Amino acid sequence: MKPAEKIPKKMSGISEPWIKTISLSPPSLQDNTADADRIINALKKELHTDAIHTEFSLLKQLPDILRKWNYHVRCILVPSRGQWLLTGIAHAEDRKPFMGLAVDLGTTRVVLRLADISTGRILGESAFDNPQISVGPDILARIHYADTEEGLATVNRLIIDGLNREIVALCGKIRIPGPLQKADAEKGISPQDIYLISVAGNTAMTHLFMGLNPRWIIREPYIPVVNKPGVVKAEELGIKAANPLCRILVFPNVGSYFGGDLIAGILFSGMNTAEDTAILVDVGTNAEVVLGNKNWLIACAGAAGPALEGGVTKMGMMAGPGVIDKIAIDPDTHEFDIRTIGNMPPKGICGSGLIDLAAHLFLSGMLDIRGRLLPSVCGHRLKEKDNIRYLTVVPENNSAAGEELIISQTDIDSLIRSKAAMYTILETITASVGMSLSELSRFYVAGTFGSFISPRSAISIGMIPDLPPDCYKPLGNSSLGGATLALTSPECIAEIDRIRERITYLELNVNQDFMNRFSAAKFLPHTNPSLFPSVKIRAEN
Amino acid sequence: MKPAEKIPKKMSGISEPWIKTISLSPPSLQDNTADADRIINALKKELHTDAIHTEFSLLKQLPDILRKWNYHVRCILVPSRGQWLLTGIAHAEDRKPFMGLAVDLGTTRVVLRLADISTGRILGESAFDNPQISVGPDILARIHYADTEEGLATVNRLIIDGLNREIVALCGKIRIPGPLQKADAEKGISPQDIYLISVAGNTAMTHLFMGLNPRWIIREPYIPVVNKPGVVKAEELGIKAANPLCRILVFPNVGSYFGGDLIAGILFSGMNTAEDTAILVDVGTNAEVVLGNKNWLIACAGAAGPALEGGVTKMGMMAGPGVIDKIAIDPDTHEFDIRTIGNMPPKGICGSGLIDLAAHLFLSGMLDIRGRLLPSVCGHRLKEKDNIRYLTVVPENNSAAGEELIISQTDIDSLIRSKAAMYTILETITASVGMSLSELSRFYVAGTFGSFISPRSAISIGMIPDLPPDCYKPLGNSSLGGATLALTSPECIAEIDRIRERITYLELNVNQDFMNRFSAAKFLPHTNPSLFPSVKIRAEN
Question: Engineered SS bond to A424: which of A77, A171, A518, B250, CB 3.0-4.6 Å?
Answer without folding.
Answer: A518
